[in-house]
Amino acid sequence: MTNIPPKAVTLPLEQKYSPERMVEMGRTALDWLGSHYLEIILAALTAAVIYVLLGVVKRTAARFVAGSDELTGIRTIFLRAIARTSRFFRVMVAAELVITYAEAPGVVSRVVNILFTIAVVWQVAIWIREIVLGLVVRRTAGQDEQGETLRNAMTLIRLLVSVVIFAIASIVTLDNLGFNVTGLVAGLGVGGIAIGLAAQGIFSDLFAALSIIFDKPFATGDTISFDTFTGVIEKIGLKSTRIRSVMGEEIIVSNTNLLGKEITNLTRLNRRRTRFAIGLVYHTPADKALALPDVLKELVEAHDGVLIRSGFTGFGDSALQFVLDFDILSADFEEVFTARHRIGLAVYRTLHERGYEFAYPTQTTYTAAPDGMMIMPYAPPALAKDAVTSAAGPEKSL
Q1: Does the pLDDT of residue 346 top 90, yes or no?
Q2: CA 142 to CA 214: how far, in whole Å?
Q3: At 234, which helix (H) or strand (E)?
Q4: Residue whose C-alpha is closest to residue 342's, from 292, 276, 290
Q5: DSSP codes joined into one string, 64-130
Q6: What's the whole-number average pLDDT of the chain?
Q7: CA 132/CA 155 separation, integer angstroms
Q8: Share of the chain above pLDDT 90, in %
Q9: Which of 20-24, 348-352, 385-389 has the highest mean pLDDT?
Q10: In sequence order, which residues have a C-beta less than 8 Å from that of residue 273 and are 6 or more positions away?
Q11: Which residues lie closer than 8 Å to 170 by C-beta, 6 or more apart?
């Protein structure tokens, strides 16, 4: 015959905590104390030692990180987390050790196990929170130029991290205590989706701001170029970025739209390149055209520029086309602008002094006489010579 174990009987709440039941649990606890006092004493001494050791570890970590808020090393982050170890956690670790080795009665074991579970879950949540925030601060270290934006972002990050971690800790605690958390998890998920959809635009710009802070495509004070605008970053906010254009107006762009564009960070250039297109008239002598690249090189180097290339590029409609490429060794836009101005005017002045003529768009119109003969827009050389001779009068004979 198979022995079937009896089913566990769940008592109603009023019977579970009735006066008779409480008296019975107290009598059981007293019996346990009387029969296991030696084990209890040894376990208590061991637990006291463990409690003291955990306290020493906590105080050592707290002493190391005291006044080191600016330190963001991995070791500092973990020591700062250890320094947040709570007294309740240390007490429950010691109590759990006592009931484990002293064979505590069921009711005492259940109470201590419940409190130990709560202590462990919430202590782990505190440690994870400190480590995550420490890693975030370490990732954003050295961004003091963003000032208020970084402080506001860190405030929101702390709030979001704390809410998420402690919400998970609460669910884990309830689950370990025997509660059915399926409905709670489903409700939190639906509520999170609803909030996310309602504040989609705000969260999009917020996460774009966090992306700017962490990924660092640009910082306050950088000169950037996007679309048709070029300007200096004045402020990176949680919703938008303010840019002062080179023309003086303030441009306000949402962070999401700004990151969606192709951005050129001009501040990180150690040199700026400039190209001048130069057109000379077609009757420029060939030897002067051949000498032009050397003339341009001399002018660029005389004004602290670096010549990249210069030379003939093609035959235009009304000009011999040349190009001049040079670099200015500076990241300052104003300095580059001034140097480009000086080199450009030096090219203009020197070419005029050396007899070069700049070309401009011209057209030659040809007409025909009634008999169909082409009338040239200029006088033939022979006719031009006769016209000059007749205007000067007959030559005098000597």
Answers
A1: yes
A2: 11
A3: strand 229-236
A4: 276
A5: HHTT-TT---HHHHHHHHHTT--HHHHHHHHHHHHHHHTT--HHHHHHHHHHHHHHHHHHHHHHHHH
A6: 76
A7: 14
A8: 15
A9: 348-352
A10: 308, 325, 326, 327
A11: none
Element (H, E) at 27: helix 19-35
Q: In Å, what is the CA distance from 13 to each residue of 6, 8, 21?
A: 21, 15, 11
What is the amino acid identity at position 310? S
pLDDT given at position 54: 76
Strand partners, 307: 326
Contacts of 143 (CB under 8 A, 6+ apart): 150, 213, 216, 219
Lookup: tokens for 35: 């029969």
Residue 66 confidence (pLDDT) above 50: yes
Any idea which residue has 């055209």 for tokens? 289
Residue 304 DSSP one-character state: T
Lowest mean pLDDT among 94-108, 152-166, 291-305: 94-108
Cα pseudo-dihedral 165, 167, 170, 172, rounded to 10 = -70
Lowest mean pLDDT among 250-254, 306-310, 372-376: 372-376
188's tokens = 């939190």
- Which residues are bridge partners to 375 per DSSP? 367
Contact by Cβ (8 Å): 97, 43 = yes
Q: Is the dihedral of CA 14, 20, 21, 26 positive or negative?
A: positive
What's the chain's Rg over C-alpha atoms? 43
Taking the complete model, does pTM exceed 0.70, yes or no?
A: no
Extract the tokens encoding 197.
């959809």
CB atoms within 10 A of CB 339: 22
Judged on CB neighbours under 10 Å (0-12, 13-18, 19+), 227 is exposed
**Is 153 or 264 the better-scoring residue by pLDDT?**
264
Q: How many CB atoms lie within 10 A of CB 120?
A: 17
User: What is the residue whose two structure tokens read 């000597």?
Assistant: 398
